[in-house]
What does this fold into?
Amino acid sequence: MISPAPLRHRDTLLKASTAVGFTALASGLAAMVLLHATSGLNPAFDVISIHLYTPLGWLLPVSLGLFALGASAFALAARASGAPRWLSALLFVWSGCIALVALFPTDPPTASEYSPVHFVHRYAAFAAFCTMAGLGLAFSRWSRRTERCPELVARAVAACSWVAIVSLFVTSLPYGLDFVGAEAPWWADAAGFNQRMTVGSELVALAFLGGWLRRDSAEAVAAPARSVVRERVLAA
It folds into this structure.
């Protein structure tokens, strides 16, 4: 017979984790919007990282830290709900990479040479983008083999992942061409827009995952609870 006490504890943990996740994501997005609104920079051409050197630049690490917190909360929910282990692991990896991006700022635009801190920032961001894109594709493939995930959620996460991959390729293209001494095409100049497409699509994918975890977790807890009720009825 299953005791209802662990079920209630698990239900509380799952609800609290997803609530913290969505609160952190919403707060981080609000901080990011405020930062952009007061920066005076052109979002089409200026990348997100240099917003650190605007009047409210301190909002950048705050926003990124909140995104990392939200992903960590969803990772805990994934682990508690019985989702695949790789899902919670990759969410923690994404969270850790975003935390590195927040802790290691990019160099100011006036810097003549890149510092080691700048490279940590750059490659942690690249690792985070790749991690979430890969997570989304893996989740979509896994969802086709199980009935736990609605098709709409799986398709939305997959679409966001492909948008992130294409945007990341376009964002990274100028760096690769510069490395080989080639000139980047004109449409690659919109680095700010391309980067925001990557970040935005991955945040949307994260929100869909959080919504699925909240729904899936509630159903996972409800199923054993119904079993407990049936066992009590039969025992009576």
